[in-house]
Amino acid sequence: MATMTPIITATPGDPPTYSVAMAETFSWIPIQNEVRPLYAQASYITNLKELSSYFEEETGNLLSFNNHSINVNRGWEMDNTMRPMISIQNGSADAESLIEIVEYQIGNNNATQSTLMYEWYEGPLTINGAAVPAWNSLGDIQYRIYQDTHSNGGNTFSAPNGTYMRHSGIIIGRNPEDDEGPVLLKGGSSRNMLTLCIRRLDSNTHLDVWFAFTCKIM
């Protein structure tokens, strides 16, 4: 019967002679036989519990904006029609520029007594109704807050072909604190746009909402 004899001559506990290539070099084991040398490669079983991974979060500049001072003593007024509330895009001409919505918060003035539905769309929307507001700039972040029902009846929208709903959810009181944007915002010629739309589900009575966004420019 053939016998296998390991030829390992150093171990990780012997730093002067151990190298990264040793696992490959000394994993081949000669098999003794009467004809010619044969070699087999050994596998080293690792205890996965002893492994640890380190992930470094990509650096970037954090910038934030909200609507607390846009209207006096009221927020963005909504009703039971799904309306565009805010669009966000990357204004950089650099195709490698990325913007991530790392957190957004939405709350209303009726607390948990009201139920809201929100939808995220990626791509251009056809905006109807009141005049479309201009873009605001914050670094490379461009955002547009649409007119609410208190302002000239508000804006409405339709989604053309090629624009998709990327995420939707329900808010009772406020959304979860760890909500993030559904996709990254790209700069350059491949620029995309995200639009957050919202409506009230439980009543046609107008309701004020406040929002805050924190974005990372990478």
Short structural summary:
The chain is mainly beta and 218 residues long.
Helix content: under 10%
Q: How would you classify the quaternary structure?
A: single chain
**What characteristic shape results from the CA principal axes?**
elongated
Spans where pLDDT lies below 50 across 5 or more residues = 5-10
Major sheet attributes = 6 strands, antiparallel
Lateral arrangement of strands in the main beta sheet: 9-10-5-14-7-12
Number of helices: 1
> How many domains comprise the coordinates?
2
State the order of secondary-structure elements, H for helix, E for strand: HEEEEEEEEEEEEEEE
What does the model show?
- It is elongated, with a radius of gyration of 29 Å.
- It has a six-stranded antiparallel sheet with strand order 9-10-5-14-7-12, with no helix packed on it. Strands 3, 4, 6, 13 and 15 form a five-stranded antiparallel sheet that branches.
- The longest helix is centred in the first third of the chain and has 4 residues.
- It has two domains: 54 residues, no CATH class; 157 residues.
- By secondary structure, it is mainly β.
- About 3% of the residues have low confidence.
- The chain is built from one helix and 15 strands.
